[in-house]
Each structure stands twice: as C-alpha cells, then as structure tokens.
Amino acid sequence: MAAPPIARWRAALRLARRDALRHRGSTALVAVVIALVVGGAVAAGALLRSSTPTPETFGRMMLGESAQARITWQMPGVVTQSPREDVVLAGSDAREEPSRDAYEDRLLALLPPGSELVGASSGAVRATAGDRATGALEALEADTGGPLAGMFAPVWGRAAAGPGEVAVSLGLARRLDLAEGSELELTDGAEDSATVTVVGAYRATRHPADVVLAPGTLVDSGGALETPAASAVWFVTGDTPITWDDVLRINETGSSVVSRDVVAAPPPDSAVPLHSARPSADRPDSLAPYAGFVAGASLLACLIVGPAFAVRARREERTLALVAAQGADARTLRGIVLCGALATGAVGAAAGAVLGAGGAWAVSALLRARGDAQYPELVLPVADTALLVGLGVLVPLVAALPPALRAGRTDPAAVLAGRPTGPRERGRGRAALSALLLLSGALLVGTGFALPRADLFVPGAVASALGAVLWAPTGVGALAGAAGRLPLAWRLALRDAGRHRERTTAAVTVVAAAVALLVAVAVTTASAVDFEGAEHHPRAATGSVLVHFPGPVGADDADDAASALTEHLPVRSPATVLMARTPLWVHPLPDPGRPCPGWAVWPPVSIRTEPVPDEVPLDSPDCAPMKQNGDQNRLPWWETEGGVNPLVDDGTLVRALDLPDAEEAARALEEGRVVVTRDLDLWSDGSARVEFAWMREGDPPDGPGTGNEGRVLEVPAAAVDWPSAQYELIVPPALAREWGVEAAAVGMVGPVSRTPSEAEADRARAAVRESAGADLSVESPYSSPRTRQMALMLALAAVVATGACLVSVRLAAADSRRDAVVLVAVGADPGTGRRLGAAQSGVVAAVGVVWGTAAGIGVGAARVAAETYRAGFANPTWPLVVPWPLLAACLAGVLGASVLLALVLAPSRLPSDRRAFRPHPARTTTLSNGNRVPSEAAATHRSRDDRA
Description:
Elements: H1 5-22, H2 24-50, H3 55-63, E1 69-73, E2 79-81, E3 88-90, H4 100-110, E4 116-129, E5 132-141, E6 154-157, E7 165-169, H5 170-176, E8 183-188, E9 193-202, E10 211-213, E11 231-237, H6 244-251, E12 255-259, H7 260-264, H8 273-276, H9 288-315, H10 317-325, H11 330-369, H12 382-409, H13 412-417, H14 423-450, H15 457-470, H16 472-481, H17 488-499, H18 501-532, E13 545-548, H19 555-568, E14 575-581, E15 585-589, E16 647-648, H20 652-657, H21 662-670, E17 674-676, E18 687-693, E19 712-719, E20 729-731, H22 733-738, E21 742-750, H23 758-772, E22 775-778, H24 785-815, H25 817-825, H26 832-868, H27 884-905, E23 924-926, E24 932-934, H28 936-947
Parallel strand pairs: 5-10, 7-9, 16-20, 17-19
Antiparallel strand pairs: 1-11, 1-12, 2-3, 4-5, 4-8, 4-11, 6-9, 7-10, 8-9, 13-21, 13-22, 14-21, 15-18, 17-20, 18-19, 23-24
Helix pairs in contact: 1-11, 2-9, 2-11, 2-12, 2-24, 9-12, 9-18, 9-24, 11-12, 14-15, 15-26, 16-17, 16-18, 17-18, 17-26, 18-24, 18-26, 19-23, 24-26, 24-27, 26-27
Subcellular location: Cell membrane
InterPro entries: ABC3_permease_C, Membrane_comp_ABC_pdt
Main location: membrane
C-alpha cells in the first residue's frame, strides 16, 4: 500500500534536511547566492525609493509641521511650475512690480478664507569665517518656530531666534569649522555685511537653504517684492489646504507655490500646464520606475540563482540515485529536491533582506551624518521587499523543478555508474531557446524602430541579451580548444570548462547576469547625465580658477589678486580678463545663409510633441539663436556696463582658458583676426559682421565706442566651438583701439597643475576678497545626483557579480573533486590546487564579463532608445554614452577580485583521497518494508557488472 501524502512529504523533508546538513558547504554557497541577489535588490530598491522623499517628509522639509504652503515671488507675469516646484518657468515684459503690502492683499484674496501669511525673505549670501570664505549660498530669513517648527531640526544647538543669530547646515559647519558660538561674516547681494553668531546646525534637506537667519538680521526685501539682496517669500498657515487650483491662480500673479496638499495628491499631467504639452512623465512617487527595477531584479534572480542551484542539484544526482536504489519512488525524489530548494531559498532570501535593508540604512545614515541630502530618510518599501523575498524563495523552486523531474525519471544505475544521462537533449533545448530569444528580441527592437514604439525596445533587448547569455557554451568550447599554449593551471581550467559545459555555463550565466546589470546601469545613467548636462558648457578647463572683479580695479589690486592665487592654489601664470568697456552691445551677427542650428529651434526638441522640420530658416520665429538660450552655466558672469561684451586679448587669455582649439584661437588673435565661438557667426567669405547696438530706451550716453552706434563692421575672423555664452566674440587689442573701445579688467583666469581642494579654494577666496574685493570659483564639470546613484548601483552589482563568481567556482570545485583526485594520482604539484582554483575563477569571470558586457550594452542602448522615441519620434538630443573608462575599471575589478579571492580561498593542496579508486565492500540497507537493497558501493559495482 502506498504511503499517505503527509508521510511522503515528511520523509522528503527529513531526507532534504539530512542532505543539506551533509553538504553544508554547497547548501551555504547556494544560500549565499540567493542572499546576494535579494540583498542587492533590496538595498538598491530602498536607496532608489529613499532618493525621493515621501510626501510627508517633503512637506516637513519645505513647510515645517503645520504650514499649508510656501509662496515664492518670481517675477511679474505668469509662472508655470511642476507640482513639487522642481521646475519653474517664468518670463515677462512687465517693468513694474506692486509693493509687498499690495501683493500680500492680492494673495489673501486668492487664498481660502481663514488663511494667513507669515512673511520671510530669501537671497544669496557669501560667508567668511577666519581664513576661509564661500561662494554664493542660499539663505532664508524667517521665524522657524511656531508653524514652521521642524523645517530645520537642529542636530546641535538651537534654531535662530533673535536678530544676529544664524543656524547653518551641517555641511557648511564642517566646511568652515563652525561650532556653537562661532562668529560668521555674511555679505548679501547688495554688498551689505553683518557679523552673526552661529547658534545651531541642522542636517541638509531638500530645502535649498544653507543658512537660516532670524528676522531682522540681513536678508530682507523690505517693502519691495525683490531687491538685489532678497526676494519675498510667504508661508501660508490656516486649516484649509491649498489645492492645485489655488496654485494655478497664484501662478498667474508671478509666484510659485509648494503646497502640502498638492505634494500629497499630485494632479494628473493633463492638469499641469508644464506637462500638458509634453510626453507623459512619471510622478515623483510613481511606482512605474520601480516596476522596471523589480522586473530586472526578478530576471537577475532567475539568471543567478537558477544556474547556481542547478549546479548543486547536478552534484546531488548521485545521492538521489542512492535513495532511489533504496526503494524511494519518483514523487519522494521530487519532494526531496523541492524541499531542499524551499528551505535554502527561504534562509537565503530572509538573510538577504536583512543584509540589504541594513546596507541601505548604513549608506543613507552615513550620508546624512555628513550633511548630504541625497537620501533625506530611509524608505524601505515593504511591498517590494516582500516581493523580492518571495522571488528568493520561488526562484530556487523553479530552478529545482527540472532536476526534480529529472531525478524522478533517471535510471539510478546509470547515475551511480557515472554514465551520461542525456546532456545532448538539454544542449539542443538551450540552443533552441537561445535562438528563439534572439529572434524575438530582434523582431521587437525592429518593430520599435518601425512604428516607432518606445515600449518595445527594452523587452526586445532583454530577450536578445538572454539569448546571447544562453549561447555561452559555444564560447566556452572555443576557449577550451585554444588552451594549448597556456600555463598548466589555466590550460586545465579551460579544458575542464569545455568538458563540463553544463556546469561551466551555469557559472558563466551567474556572472554574465550580474555584469549585464552593472553595464546596463552604467550606460543608462551616463547617457542620462550627458543629456541633462548637454547645455552646461565650461568657461575654462576643469579645475581652472576664475576670479570675478565686482567693479573697476587698479593694477595693484590685480597684482594682489594674482599673488593670492599663486600663494594658496596650484595656479601658474594667472591671466587678466579684459572686456570691452562700452554701453553698447557689441556682438557678431549670424550668417543669414545658414539654417537655424538644432539647439536654437524653439520649442526645444526635448519637450516637443511633434518632429522638428528638416530645416528651420534662421529668420524663422521658431529660431532663437542667442547663445544664452543654450547655456546653463552662468557663474561667474563677467560683464561691463554694456552687458557681456567682447573680450580683448592677444592670445594670452585664450591659452590660459585651455579650452578645445585654444591654440588655434590664440594664433588668429596674434594675426589680427577676431575669434567667434560658433560656425554660425563665421560668414562664407571668412569674415564676421560685428554690430554695435544700443538696446535700451533713449539715446546712448557718450562713452567709449558709442560713435559706432548702429554700425555693422566687417572684420577677418576665425571660428572655434566654445558653446559658453560668456564668449561670443574675442578681438585683438589693436582692433579694439581702432574701434575706439577701451578694455577693462573684469577678472582673472588661473590655469592649474591640479584641481584645488575645497579647503584650498575657500582660503584663496578669502584672500582675493580681502585684497581686491573679488569673488572666486573653480571650474567644475556638470554634476548630477544620478552620478552618485550610479556609483552605488555599480558597487552593488559588482559585489553581486564577484560573490556570484566565487560561489559558482566553489560549487564547480565541489563538483569536480574526483577530477582533482586524478591530478594528484598522476603526480601533479600539490600547490596546483590553489592555482587551479584561481584559473577556474578567472575563466568563469572572463567569459561572464565578455557576455555580460555585450548584453548590458544592448539593454542600456535599448533604454536610451526608449527615451529617444518617448514622444513617438526620434529625439536626437538623447545621446548613447558608454563610459568605457568606468566600465573597464569596474569589470577589471570584478575579474581581479574574483581571481584574487579564489586564490586566497582555494585550498593550497589538491585532495589526495585515493580511496575514491579503491573497491568498497558491499553493504546493504534495510528499508521500512523489510527489503534489503545494496548501498551506494554495492549499487555501483552491480551496475559495472551489468555493463560488463
């Protein structure tokens, strides 16, 4: 009579537990793989979620505990904004502003009944403490008690309460070495100064303020809405929430709004003027970006955990065959495999969730302690974590299903005798699946380009990547055939990989999946950062020191500033910036025969809902060729009374700037030609047309160059590609004198031998401010919060890839123990074991890195293509960037760490268990039904006799 199901499963659980305890090493290795995948996914998900504050946290950071909204004056006219005020667009031709009192009355009429306004001011200040000084810092002057309590919670000290008191961010306190009671000199935009006392410090949040002043200290717009020193801000208190309709009405008066109610319940894109004409975008709290992350984590889990468990199950086929030889039926064998997978998966997933959550907490806590607002709070998504833990349990079950089914069908005598059990069929099945995935992926990507459909690129690329990874046995076999000239350990490792392709393919798949994730994250993020920074153009080579003089300076002041630069910074030969001093606007005219450049087409391609025409005429209303339209980098801003006028230089300055083609520009200036900084301004005859224009009301005042008002002069020219709006035209000194234009010193440029540190720059800034009243900045490349997120994701993926590689190699080593014994038997050096382990790890890591890199670049390119075609047509402003230096460093680290760790962890000697080749005495085992069956050794010898 057949045993009842409960008894059968109880027996399976008992046997699975004993098998796991008997093979602690392989069980622990599989659990480690699961923990790595689940832990990495949980940590990545938590950090991605934590980078966007929850509505409650965002409301507290921006509005304190009870304020309903914050209103910020922008300018006369209509303002458009995003719901969280992340993006604000404002523009107006109005010249007059109402008084602050009149505007407050207008706001109260638009707000719900019972609302009250708490006045505040915001502005930029420069801070000096001891021998250090900062550049412009965001300052808020407000009473942060009462309804605003909690906005800037002190880490030490207290909030600023009376005039002359200030609270600073932790980052600023660390930067200037401030403590409670320290004195700080602040200078506002109107050059008014005040010495204040530091009374506390708070952690940086998404609120931009680095300095919070008590009312009546320095930053105050007075009775105006805006002054050179400050602009008006109000906090709305009351019991009635400020709705999106209220926000839109206030936008029409020239102010932007952060509303607690709107942040908690954002309006649909169709109700947001800023988004209504753009392709739909994900909300800050949307689950759409994380759905792709969870899907990717699930796929990674299947690719990594599945092969790792398959290697373990392959090794245990002999044990299962022994159980079958003792009378177990197919269902019991399947139950043993599945129960073992369930237990291993549950332990590994639970451990991974704990480790992932702990790692995310440690990263966010460390950054917050350093005053970094990248992760203002730890958000652990319970639903995502539960899903990942469930996947960590489910994937081993799925991976164990084929071995379980195979265990129920396999002939025990064939397994115990070591005869093949059908790898050809599995190889053909893998090849067929790989071809099917490659074909379906190519069809999806091709369809995406043909329609176009942005949502088809990533699925198609993922399918193709899976097909490419499954094709790994071909590459392994080719490597094995080319192993003849390699050292012994590497030759053995390659031939072992080619002989045991199923085991090697599983290990390679583990590494390739993790590397593919790493590469896809790097390609996608680098492309996004390049897209964001496309309009950020440097004014000088990275690290160069730029000095801005606020007004006319004498030769002594310029010499003092140069001495301060060379004393405190690694600056060599500072060059003075000379600019044409005239009230006129002197600028080059574009060649009317040229078409409008892509960056000047309005509206920008990045927000269009229809394709750009093939060619837009330069005089079209849709063309805005002013250089300011394509440059986001506006500091420092050298100018004279005419605005940003031509630089006057004999070649010294442009060489100091060290921008591309600087030497060509210097030679042109030495030859007496002007330099224009875009091809659009170089006419077909090799000349430029320079216009002297008066852009204000009335007649121009008498001054240098005003006799040329209204004239257009033709001059010989050369062109270089410098997109920065700071450089429209550079003229040689002789030509400037011919035009009757004087040159005024507006700043200095200091080429450097290395990029200065922040502390060095602060000390030099204080020195030039004291000697010449000047300000200083260091030219830096465009930075994005995505860069840090990418670094964290790459680190996680690299850890998973390295750990998965080591685990796979250890599983393979356990599986190939008998081969190692053979090496000892034929006289191999005992130390070959360590070298062989390192070589096996290197082979697996190298093949996995190559396959994973190709697959990851494909997936990353598909993600970029999805963004490119998001609006239904090609958007050429989205670039495909493969950060080869970063990827090379990461992949070399994975490969090197895998080899070195395998070299350290591998046993120094090969096993010398010669009993594996000795005949075993026949033993029998009594089953519960009284039958006596042969043990493993007896079954082995019997199968040999049958074969004979």
